[in-house]
Amino acid sequence: MGDVLPPKRQAVVDRLRRRIESYRRRQSDCIPRFDQSFNGLCEQNIQETLVLKQRFLESKAKRAAKKTDKKQDNSNNLHTVWEICSMPPNLAGSCIKHVLQKSGHFLA
User: Fold this and answer.
1) What is the pLDDT, as a whole number, of residue 24?
2) Among 2, 17, 26, 103, which has the minimal tally of Cβ within 10 Å of its Cβ?
């Protein structure tokens, strides 16, 4: 741009330079705020992900504990049935009814 421009054209070029400089200043003012906001959002996202992961692991542990409890209940029921089978027949009938009612299975 070493050329000498006519005054009219020089005024246009000066206006464009001022406008571009204004855009550059605005951009350099906004970039740190954008970076700060973006980093804050990323940190918030990470925290929410950790909370969700923790909730998932807790519910998974609950389900596993529930399954273990059911297995123990089933093994207790099997042990009870085995004890009933070793009883005399007149006592076994009433015990079987009691066990089935207790476990939620009803005899017709």
Assistant:
1) 96
2) 2
